[in-house]
Structure formats: C-alpha cells, structure tokens
C-alpha cells in the first residue's frame, strides 16, 4: 500500500508528484476526462413547496431524475467547517481515523481499505446524524464550531429530505407519507468527502461508478467540478451551480420501492490536478429493520410482478459493504427470478 509505504494514513498527508501505484486504474477502466460532456440536468426550485406552487413542484420532481434546490446560509458554513477540518494539523485530524466500516463516526480514506484492490483518491469523514443526540458527541470537536454547524445543517437537510420524500410519494400517485412511513424513522448519514489534488487525474477515481444503496442522497458540493452521472450511455459532468444548490441523487431503494419506475443513478467522482474538492452527501436510508417492498398499486399499473424480493435494509446494507464499489449496485442480488 503506497499510502503506508509513504508513511501517511490519509491522502491529505501524502506529498508526492506521482500517483502511487495502488491508485492507478487499468487502461480500460480510466475516466477518459477529455470525453466528458457537460449538459443540463433537471433543476427544481423548491421555494414554493409549501405554497401555491406545490402541485407543479410535485410534477417537476416526478419528471426529474436529479434535482437541485436552493437552501440557506448554512450551506456556506457547513462547507467552511468541512474545509477547516481537513486543514487541521495531521495529529489532530487523524485522531478520528478508523478503517472499520462498522464504526458510525470516523475519518477514513478510499472506500474500504480491507477489501479493495485499487484505492480511491479520497479521504472522508463519516458521521451518523439521526438521532442526533446519540451521535453528536462522537463528532470532531475541532474546529470549535464543527458540531454546532454540522448539527444545524443535518437538521435542516432532514427537513428538506422529508419534504422531498413526500413529493416523491405524491409524484408516484401514492399517499404523501407512504415513502417516509416505509422507511420507519429513516436513518441519516453524512459523508464529508475530501478529494486532494492528484498528480494525474486520468489514472484514478475519487469514487468509481456506483449507485447509492440508500433511498435518496442530498449532495452538497463546493465550486470544484468532479461529479459525473451516466445519462443515455454518456458520462455527463454535473458541475456545481453557484448559490447553494443541493443535488438529489436517487438511490437503489427508490428503485425497489417504486418497482422500477424510478431508477437509481449511476455516478462517479473524478479528481483534478490543481484543486482540492469537497462534497458533502447526506444519505437517507431506511431503518435497518425496515422491510423494503414496493407498493401493491404498482403491480398492475407498471409491471405485473414485484421486481425485487422483500428484504430488510440491514440485509441490503451488509451486501453493499461486502461487495464494495467493485460493482455498480447490489440490486441484482435481490431481483426476483
Ligand atoms: C458518494 C458520492 C460523489 C461526489 O459519496 O456516494 O457519490 O461528488 N459522491 O463526491
Ligand atoms: Ni454516491
């Protein structure tokens, strides 16, 4: 492991002008950065969500596979404490390090250093956010405002997530509270992804192509491009929209709950040579015991069978961490014959 042979735990501490060998992807699996298209993705302005525009917003959400919404001041503060955290002196920051995926709140690197063959060009801080009181004392206490800002941000983003879930239910023709009820007091995890500059971005991924295993991901990114989604067979750059936008990424559980009507989105993160990049996804997940199955109204309407067998989210999550990012998703393991 190059990170170890260079005597660093995290990429953030690596000082090298070449890419260490264990990050380099085989030629056929590289990002081909010159081929990337920039195109529009659907944007939904959620400001009228509680007012007269409600029904048109629900319609727009039904049409959009990825949406952006405007949020508040908190976004700036969240990005700010995230950046400050990764700028802390190594000894201070790395006290939070753990490579044990079952630990709820930890600083780590790549994806799962125990199972992967090629590393991801990423360090990350992973935080559980719900119920907040249970986890906040394990979060970093430096920079001093970290806990306060991240707690306020995660509360706000949860409110937004609830509204979105309700609109998604409505757009599927279901009761507003159906999605949220199915998730049984949904879990909320945040990752603070830190992608350092890379001597040769063509050789590596920040995160290789994957679908998020959860229900929806609300992703905040700074001003540096890096996120790409697969759209009609092409990799498309989802460049940051200035002024506080959040990207909503549909995950595997939306695909199961809607019996395939909405699809989870294949996406990846690339890195660049001169700028660091920070992204902060909030993953909304069913509770581990929630039984995931599509609403019976989808059976005749869209397919005459349940595309996926029933499972608990705990089973799915275990499969996801076992498989890692070597495949796009774990849906194939739960597909009905
Ligand atoms: C993720 C992810 C993309 C990004 O953390 O699951 O897809 O832009 N991140 O960092
Ligand atoms: Ni993702």
From TrEMBL:
Its cofactor is L-ascorbate. Gene3D superfamilies: B-lactam Antibiotic, Isopenicillin N Synthase, Chain. The keyword Metal-binding applies. It comes from the Eukaryota. Residues 185-286 form the Fe2OG dioxygenase domain. GO terms for biological process: defense response to oomycetes. GO terms for molecular function: dioxygenase activity; metal ion binding. Keywords: Dioxygenase, Iron, Metal-binding, Oxidoreductase. Belongs to the iron/ascorbate-dependent oxidoreductase family. This is Fe2OG dioxygenase domain-containing protein. It comes from Zostera marina. The lineage of its organism: Eukaryota, Viridiplantae, Streptophyta, Embryophyta, Tracheophyta.
């Amino acid at each position: 492991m190059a990170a170890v042979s260079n005597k660093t735990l995290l990429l953030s501490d690596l000082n090298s002008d070449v890419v260490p060998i264990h990050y380099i992807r085989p030629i056929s699996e590289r990002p081909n950065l010159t081929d990337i298209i920039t195109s529009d993705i659907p944007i939904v302005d959620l400001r009228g969500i509680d007012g007269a525009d409600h029904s048109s917003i629900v319609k727009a959400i039904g049409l959009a596979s990825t949406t952006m919404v405007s949020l508040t001041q908190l976004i700036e503060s969240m990005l700010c404490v995230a950046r400050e955290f990764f700028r802390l002196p190594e000894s201070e920051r790395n006290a939070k390090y753990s490579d044990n995926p079952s630990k709820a709140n930890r600083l780590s690197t790549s994806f799962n250093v125990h199972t992967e063959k090629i590393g991801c060009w990423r360090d990350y801080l992973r935080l559980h956010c719900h119920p907040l009181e249970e986890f906040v004392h394990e979060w970093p206490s430096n920079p001093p405002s970290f806990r306060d800002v991240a707690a306020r941000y995660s509360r706000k983003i949860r409110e937004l997530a609830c509204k979105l879930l309700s609109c998604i239910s409505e757009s599927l023709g279901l009761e507003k509270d159906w999605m949220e009820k199915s998730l049984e007091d949904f879990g909320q995890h945040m990752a603070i992804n830190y992608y350092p500059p890379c001597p040769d971005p063509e050789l590596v991924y920040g995160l290789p192509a994957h679908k998020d295993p959860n229900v929806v991901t609300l992703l905040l990114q700074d001003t540096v491009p890096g996120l790409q989604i697969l759209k009609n067979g092409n990799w498309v750059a989802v460049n940051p929209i200035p002024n506080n936008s959040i990207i909503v990424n549909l995950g595997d559980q939306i695909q199961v709950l809607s019996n395939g009507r909405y699809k989870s989105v294949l996406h990846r993160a690339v890195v660049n040579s001169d700028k660091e990049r920070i992204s902060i996804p909030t993953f909304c997940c069913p509770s581990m015991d929630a039984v995931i199955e599509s609403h019976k109204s989808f059976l005749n309407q869209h397919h005459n069978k349940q595309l996926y067998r029933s499972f608990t989210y705990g089973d799915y999550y275990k499969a996801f961490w076992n498989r890692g990012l070597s495949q796009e998703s774990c849906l194939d393991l739960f597909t009905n014959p």
